[in-house]
Amino acid sequence: MAALVDAFPSYTFVFPDAPYAGRLWIRDPPGGKGEPTTDPYWDSVSLRFIDDVVAQQGPFDAILGYSQGGAMVSAYLSHAPPSTFQQALIFCGYLPTTHEGIIGRIDQNSPFTTSSFHFMGQRDWIISNALSRAAARKYVSPTISVSSTAGHALPRPSDPSFAEATSFLAALAPPTCVDDDDWIDAVGDTVGYDEIKSCAQAARVGGCRYSEVVRKCSCSCPPPTCADDDDWVATNAPSAGFPLITTCATAATLGGCRLFASIAENCGCACQ
Questions:
Q1: pTM for the full model?
Q2: Which residue of 36, 43, 119, 141 pairs with 91 in a disulfide if CB–CB is 3.0 to 4.6 A?
């Protein structure tokens, strides 16, 4: 798991501990696995626990589970609203078939539309590939990755399946400024900024001040520099009573932060 986390330094991973004794997500049937439970909410403590994590630390883009955690992913998706996660990643997963009530709940609410990735190792002697494939069939469009070398563990970075997993997870990366250019070009002028044709341009021209535009940009506009704000200053300084102030740099040189508050407050740069 550490390698997967390290591959995405900009992502935040949250690892809650399973709430049942023994760090279980789903308790075994009281009479042993030969006597399946029938309660559809046999996993109720885990459901409430994950609900709380989502409410208090979310929203989350994806849910990831390994082994019994993988079984819990499907169990939780059968309980949560369909839009709770964009993705589900299940490693060495299976369906909790010793719990007929939970299986009934899964069957009733599947196939799940959540985009899913299912990993299995051909050397997994604990959870067979057949069990993992059965779990994958509960999803509308599962991506299946099979490692010829892995056992009951996540793929190593040298395993081709690792690249497949990271490629799948990378789809969660937020859109770039360029991705939103079509929206800005079409809508920017309707909110009074017909000169703003892209999110990138909005950033260069102090776009983070153009809240009506930038709040529609999925990208994070970088803090504008003095030079980036020159267009704004040249346009607005004269109307603010400072016709000689044509750049943020000029404002800084002339003590803009102290004297030209109406200009300096709109400069994203730190005036010296």
A1: 0.66
A2: 119
